[in-house]
């Protein structure tokens, strides 16, 4: 068990080192030697977990679709908003997440490894369907179309804002976007009950250690969360 | 005069050849030799118009902010919508436009040459201010914030949709986006009078030759348009 935990930790360290370099300079120009140096692990450990550089890329992309830190809410739409707000707070702080986006918008890496966008669209479509069956979503809304639009616009806010002079306060930008889009999705009775703000994003982030501890406890006693 | 026209045409041919290669493979991996071969012009002509590869990049970016083909409308908001719809129709058809976007999302080119996004935001902010002064825009709307959001989301729709399996019908995607965003911008009396559809994008595109001919005539008799 202790050995297994160590292996999981080593794998994570390698992946985070690789993500940090992918994020800085792109997948193409990253070498295994640099990942080794940054991760401070042996060559043997690296090749055990990731036989090729491509496996590192796939590992980063797999980690990019995450709902970690999001707690169940009375409104399914609030859960969806929380997922997008929390991601906006985490992405500029976690190279693993921003490296995945960097690889998705790079033509060469995209052709080789695809992107996490279809998985994100599927995830949001499922939540929107669930929300609709509970009467939270306007009846004429096409869930897959809105999910796709949410992924497109969220990404655009990140990509463009990052390139503008003065940089980008991503949680604030994403909150503004969601405030504009939400009236096209939520029913009038549900709309005022949903909280969309940069402050909520920060709160969700601060709550992550507690969420992680609870998840670990639940897992230890065999509960799913 | 004939000589000047020929020079303008040669400059355009070179720029379009460069844009096509930037668009396919990125600015970094493009060589001047390839541009020469694609443009079928002499080395002297190329260096006369563009002393360095960087000048080609700047030339492409300069051409990326365009309202060509957009006619004055009774509603300023309709003009703004037309600019964004027409761009959605033109971009997949014109390497000059898609190369500019490709360079903007590439970290290396962006650091070197900047992007056209601030110019786009300025252009749309101006139109929104004008529209507001005519009572077309909701009073609480922050024009610069909405302009920024429009540029972010338009770009996101292009970047993500292009990477999704099944490709992308950009005018349709952009029309859906604008239909969702517009109620957050336009006053209730103006909203139903604005046409936002992929069909309108196609119509604007088909009208471009006529628009060009009229602009050329107006210019010849010294009118501004």
Structure description:
Two copies of one chain form a homodimer. With 225 residues, chain A is mainly alpha-helical. In chain A, 68% of the residues lie in helices and 0% in strands. The two termini of chain A are 22 Å apart. Chain A folds into two domains: 2-62, Arc Repressor Mutant, subunit A, CATH 1.10.10.60; 76-220, Tetracycline Repressor, domain 2 (Orthogonal Bundle). Chain A has helices at 2-25, 32-39, 43-49, 53-62, 76-90, 95-105, 107-113, 117-133, 143-163, 170-181, 198-206, 208-220. In chain A, 41% of the residues are buried. At the A-B interface, helix 6, helix 8, helix 9 and helix 10 of A face helix 6, helix 8, helix 9 and helix 10 of B.
Keywords:
homodimer; 225 residues; mainly alpha; Arc Repressor Mutant, subunit A; Tetracycline Repressor, domain 2; 12 helices; 68% helix; globular
């Amino acid at each position: 068990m202790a050995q297994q935990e160590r292996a999981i930790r080593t794998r994570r360290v390698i992946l985070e080192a690789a993500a940090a370099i992918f994020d800085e300079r792109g997948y193409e120009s990253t070498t295994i030697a640099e990942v080794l140096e940054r991760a401070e692990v042996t060559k043997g450990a690296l090749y055990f977990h990731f036989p090729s550089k491509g496996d590192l890329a796939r590992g980063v992309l797999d980690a990019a679709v995450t709902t970690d830190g999001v707690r169940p809410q009375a409104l399914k739409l609030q859960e969806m908003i929380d997922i997008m707000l929390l991601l906006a707070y985490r992405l500029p702080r976690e190279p693993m997440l921003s490296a995945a986006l960097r690889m998705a918008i790079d033509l060469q890496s995209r052709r080789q490894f695809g992107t996490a966008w279809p998985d994100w669209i599927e995830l949001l479509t499922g939540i929107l369907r669930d929300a609709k069956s509970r009467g939270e979503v306007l009846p004429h809304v096409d869930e897959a179309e809105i999910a796709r639009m949410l992924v497109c616009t969220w990404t655009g806010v990140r990509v463009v804002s990052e390139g503008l002079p003065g940089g980008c306060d991503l949680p604030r930008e994403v909150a503004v976007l969601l405030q504009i889009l939400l009236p096209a999705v939520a029913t009038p009775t549900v709309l005022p009950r949903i909280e969309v703000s940069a402050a909520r994003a920060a709160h969700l982030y601060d709550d992550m250690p507690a969420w992680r501890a609870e998840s670990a406890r639940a897992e230890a006693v065999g509960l799913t969360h």
